[in-house]
Predict the structure of Tol-Pal system protein TolB.
Amino acid sequence: MKKLHILLFSATLLMGTAHAQLRVEISGVGNNQIPVAIAAFADEGMAPQQVSAIIRADLERSGMFKVIDARQAIPETAAVDYGAWKASGADALVVGSVQKLADGRFAVRYKLYDTAKGGPLSSMSDAVQPEGTRLEAHRIADDVYEKLTGVPGIFATRIAYVAQPVPGKQWELNVADADGENVIHAFRSRQPIISPAWSPDGTKVAYVSYHQQKPIIYVQNLITGDVRLLSNQKGNNSAPAWSPDSRTIAMALSKDGNTEIYTIGADGSGLRRMTNSPAIDTEPRYSPDGQTIYFMSDRSGNAQIYKMSASGGEATRLTFAGAQNFSPRISPDGKTLAFISQRSNVYSLYVMDLASGQELRLADDAGEPSFAPNGKYIMYRTGSGGQRTLAVVSVDGRVKQRLSNQAGNITEPSWGPFMK
């Protein structure tokens, strides 16, 4: 899987690197931050990217850590005075080094120490191409996050989103690192692009493009850059969503006059109608086990969220509060529903515990949510007027980030899967 991640990185360079990076602004922190000291990596100045700085920024952005600057470079081979680091307030220590190899690659080595128990917790050593040093730093940050919290980190994952450098006149389907860096243009159009959706293996993105003056669903291979038409039925073709096994894509079609949920093979074969009601049924999403499809329908008179078996059948209504509820998204563990709810003329991001039905409001002025692959964060579009941008909130509402650029609008976020 690591080879796949490198292939994706190399292939996206061929699509054209964007100049405008996203800027991350952080507000709020976790309830119990873990103090961790991060040392500069020995000889990291010879690498294109400062590895320790990227690790530090990743951990700070998560809101889970109180980062302590070690104020010195410490290689992974150095002896560690555990008592001194514990006295400084650090529960853990990150050290490492960077070495330029004869073939032009960089050897990046790191160790994570537990200062309380007085021993190592983890280590990594990889040789990467110069352009891969940022990804390697993200992978180290992921390892630190997982070893100290027990939850996989998401710093080495990627996001897809739609940018409008010139609102109303130009659209770009972009792919970037989870921190907004390494932005690349996957597709450009003078007509709207909406609803990007990652394939479960992270190699493809399905999306809707209006570049032929109507909504058509395409699938783009991010390794080769190849684009394949998936659905160009009469009327609207919208809201693609992959099944967990990548074999099927659910979508909304109006080919018979009314918008209904359909499924189709990822190869474009086997179109099947899943709903049959006089209402508008749209925005399908598979559950992580592939057994259930969640969707939005106005069959009750206004937009609400329903679920049904992935094989079809009767639908069950899930939301009842608010004037309307839409954009259902399911957490990776299948236990939490994220959605947008209109209440008191405000569009807010909510999460619902599917077992108890208990709701929690996470953010106002929100739209188009997307779960991080570890289920701990949700990215969404914010800004109902003026400039639109992306934001991230933890599922408990404590940690908030805002990703913005200097011009244009950013919408339609989709958080990619884990890739090793």
